[in-house]
Design goal:
With about 140 residues, the protein is of the alpha/beta class. It has 7 helices and 5 strands, in the order E-H-E-H-H-E-H-H-E-H-E-H. The protein has a 5-stranded parallel β-sheet with strand order 3-2-1-4-5. Strand 4, helix 6 and strand 5 form a beta-alpha-beta unit. Helix 1 packs across helix 2, helix 1 packs across helix 3 and helix 4 packs across helix 5. The longest helix has 15 residues. It is globular.
């Protein structure tokens, strides 16, 4: 069983592709994922990139994932320390990295800059490692 922390970018990509998570994988995220995903979808609808109906479908997909959301005091303390060490302006990304350090095997992000910034702090896995590959793909 491999435990992956995913961010809102990965959650949205999973929803857009209606991807199936590979067997034996467990998904984790900080509780703030819900608000970040909602904001991402809202901005997409406002920009005309998708309809409200599509956004609702993506939300329903993510809500249906077996995704454990965490946000305890220890996670917040570690996130604060990481953000301070890395000189980040806030703790948002640091919560994902803290959760990976505390409870997961790897972090999955589509953000190349973030992946590079945390290389050496946590294992960064690819999106493809997370999803079940279709036959013939």
């Amino acid at each position: 069983m491999t435990r992956y922390v995913i961010g809102p970018d990965v959650a949205l990509q999973l929803a857009q592709r209606e991807a199936q998570i590979a067997e034996g994988h467990v998904l984790l995220a900080p509780t703030l994922l819900r608000s970040q995903l909602l904001a991402l979808l809202y901005r997409s609808v406002q920009a005309g990139a998708m309809t409200k109906k599509e956004a609702d479908g993506h939300l329903a997909y993510v809500r249906g994932l077996r995704l454990r959301l965490l946000g305890d005091r220890v996670l917040q303390n570690v996130a604060w320390q990481l953000a301070a060490e890395l000189g980040w302006p806030d703790t948002l990304d640091a919560e994902y990295i803290a959760l990976t350090r505390l409870q997961a095997d790897a972090f999955v992000t589509l953000d190349g800059e973030l992946a590079a910034a945390v290389k050496g702090l946590v294992v960064v896995a690819s999106y493809d490692e997370l999803v079940r590959q279709e036959a013939g793909a």
